[in-house]
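sorry for the late reply, my laptop died twice this morning and i had to redo everyting from scratch. anyway the thing you sent over, i finally got around to it. pasting the sequence first so we're on the same page, its 399 residues, then the predicted structure underneath. double check i copied it right bc i was rushing
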Amino acid sequence: EEILPGIGILPISDGGQEMTMAQEVIAAAERRWGKLSVQSSFPPKLMESGTFSSGQNDRSMNSQQDTKAASILVIDDELGIRESLRMILMDKYTVHLAPTTEKAIQYLEENHISMIFLDIKMPGVNGLDFLKVIKSRYPLMPVIIITAFPSSQTAITALRNGAFDYIVKPFQFSEILGTTERAIIQSTTISEKDTSIVYSLRRAVYKNFFSTTEALLLAIDAKDSYTAGHSKRVSSLIALVAENLGMNDAQTEALRYAAFLHDIGKIGISDQILMKPGRLTEEEFQSMKLHSEIGYTILEPIDFLKDSLPIVRHHHEWYNGNGYPDRLKGLDIPYEASVLSLIDVYDALTTDRHYRKKYSHKDALQIMEKGIHTQFTPFLTEKIIKIIDDYHRNTCKEF
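ok and here's the structure:
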C-alpha cells in the first residue's frame, strides 16, 4: 500500500511494482468508477474552465456537468491534490481547479460557485489570508480549509475567519463527500433564508418610501385642494393606457411610479402660487415650471426609480419644442414622458381648478386633439384618446 496525496491509503495491485503518479491516479479511478474507455486519452486535456476534455467523450461529459447541482472550486497549488478532489467530486458536482489565488478570483468572478476547498499553503499568499478575502466578497460562501500541516491554532484561526470546516491531508473519500454535502445543504438553506430576508427588506423599503412620498403628496394636495388626488388618478389611468399600448412590465412599472410622483416637486413651490385663485403671471408661471426639475432632484438618489426619472423630468415637454424644462422636441422626448403628458393633461382638464370649472370628457378630448403636432405627439395621441374614450363609453364614468 502507498499513500496517494490527498486521497489516503490506496492498495496498489500491480505485482508489487512501483507505479507512477499518473498510473496511481488511473488505478484509483478505475477501482472507484470502472475502466476508462479505450476511446479516451490520458491524461485528459485541461480546458480553460478547469474541467477536462477526453477526446470523443467531451460532449457526454459536458452534458453531465450541465445537469449537476452545484459547482465547486478547488484552490491548491499541488496538481495531485487538485486531481484527487476532482475525481472524488466529479460524479455529483461540477469541479473547477485553480492552482493560484489569482486564477481562483477569476473563476469566482466568472462562474456561480457553490463552495470552495482552499489549501493553507499557497504560493505568494497564505490560505488563511485569502480566506478573509473570499469571505469579505462572498460572506455566505462555504469554504473548507485543507492542510497537511495541522495545528490547533491554525484550525481555530480558520474557523474564526469563517471557514465551514477544516480537513487534514491525507483525507478519505467519505470525509470529502460528507463534508461537501453538508456545506452545500447549509449554503442552500442560508441562501433561501437570505433571499427571503432581502425580499422582505426590499418590500419594507418600498412601503416606507411610498408611505413617506404619499404624505408629501397629501401635503401638496392640502395646499392645492383643486388637484387633490391628481397623482393617484393619473397613476391608475396610466396603467390602463400602458396595457392597451402593449407596454412591457418594466415600462409600465416605471411609468406608474413616475405618474404617482410626477408632481412631487411642487413641494418646493410657493403656497401663494399653488393656491392662487386666478391665472398665474408670467413670473409665477416660470416659478411653477421649476417643479419638474425639483421633483427630478428629489428622486434622483433613489436607485430603483432611475427609469422613472426621465419621465418625471420631461412630462411637460412639447412636441414642437416649446415645453419645459429642457425644450426637447419630437422624438427626443422620452416615449413614456409623452404618454404621461397626455394622461396628466386629461386629468387636469376634467378636474375643477382655481381659475375654471372642469371640462366634460368630450370637450377634454377635443382640446387634446387640437394640441396634436404642437403640444402632443401625433399617432400616440390618437391612440391614447381612443383608449380613454373606449373605456369611458364602456364604463360611463369619469376618471
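Residues 1-23, 28-67 have pLDDT under 50 and may be disordered.
thats about all i looked at so far, will dig more tmrw
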